[in-house]
Amino acid sequence: MSSLTTQQNPADFYDFEGALSEEERKVLARTRAFMREEVQPLVAAHWAEGTFPRELIDRFRESGLVGLPYEGYGEPGPAASHLLTGMMAMEMSRVDASVATFFGVHNGLAMYAIQSGGDQEQRDRWLPGMATMETVGAFALTEPLDGSDIAAGMHTTARRDGDTWVLDGEKRWIGNATFADHVVVWARDVDDDQVKGFVVGRGTPGFEATRIEHKTSLRIVENADVELTGVRVPEADRLQNVSSFRDVAEILRATRSGVAWQALGVMIGAYELALRYATEREQFGRPLAGFQLVQDLLVKSLANITSSWGLLLQLARLQDAGTFRDEHSSLAKAHVTARMREVVAWAREIFGGNGIVLDYDVARFFADAEAIYSFEGTREMNTLIVGKAITGESAFV
Question: Which keywords belong to this entry (predicted)?
Answer without folding.
Answer: FAD, Flavoprotein, Oxidoreductase
